[in-house]
Amino acid sequence: KQEVTQIPAALSVPEGENLVLNCSFTDSAIYNLQWFRQDPGKGLTSLLLIQSSQREQTSGRLNASLDKSSGRSTLYIAASQPGDSATYLCAVMGNNDMRFGAGTRLTVKP
Amino acid sequence: SQTIHQWPATLVQPVGSPLSLECTVEGTSNPNLYWYRQAAGRGLQLLFYSVGIGQISSEVPQNLSASRPQDRQFILSSKKLLLSDSGFYLCAWSTVGVNQPQHFGDGTRLSIL
């Protein structure tokens, strides 16, 4: 059974810092991995999706990497801003089954 | 463009009362539909998914049921709510296929008293 772990559970950084969020999964037989952002009391917004054949995806200040063999993905946020404060979730898609991590709660202080 | 709607946004219900949460998708046909629950401080747990009208798959045994009466309508129900049913419920859709991203609604915060 796929298990997805996100470390750290919470992270607080000053504005302007570059930061990395980590996601690990136990079963490397995945179709894709998706990073989401969730604001308090809101639904999920998709940030980046990496297909299993890809190594990374970039969107603006965000870069997500995937190392399927080691069961790891990272989300890199450059030049963080207070508006980046949210919970970031990673999810891996298996055989029509998406498993989520518990998320990393990010706070960017002005 | 495709949009997904969930309602209500928040709901407070007494133990033992019935439940009906609705989710509709616009701008696409024959989507896969999903219901998730997010307990406080925990990841999302898939409750049900549907690949077509009347086709429901359940991931975990529970007090809830789901129905898909129309192509783009997905309903989460319970006859008698339990305290443990409290949580944040999210509906999602994806296009057909195993490698498609899922798109989420804004969720329903359900509190059981």
The proportion of residues forming helix of chain B, as a percent range, comes to under 10%
Number of strands of chain A: 11
Greatest interface: A-B, 25 and 24 residues
- Show unreliable segments of chain A: none
Strand content of chain B: over 45%
Question: What is the structural class of chain A?
Answer: mainly beta
Global morphology of chain A: globular
* Distance between the ends of chain B: 38 Å
If you compute it from the alpha carbons, what radius of gyration of chain B comes out, rounded to the nearest whole angstrom?
13 Å
The radius of gyration computed from the alpha-carbon positions of chain A, rounded to a whole number of angstroms, is: 13 Å
Keywords:
heterodimer; A: 110 residues; mainly beta; 6-stranded mixed sheet; 5-stranded antiparallel sheet; 0% helix; 58% strand; B: 113 residues; 7-stranded mixed sheet; 4-stranded antiparallel sheet; globular
How would you sum up this structure, described in words?
The complex is a heterodimer of chains A (110) and B (113). Chain A has 110 residues and is mainly β. Chain A has no helices and 11 strands. In chain A, the strands form 2 sheets. In chain A, strands 2, 4, 5, 9, 10 and 11 form a 6-stranded mixed sheet that branches. A 5-stranded antiparallel sheet of chain A has the order 1-3-8-7-6, with no helix packed on it. The N and C termini of chain A lie far apart (41 Å). In chain B, the strands form 2 sheets. In chain B, strands 2, 4, 5, 6, 9, 10 and 11 form a 7-stranded mixed sheet that branches. The interface between A and B is medium-sized, with 25 and 24 residues.
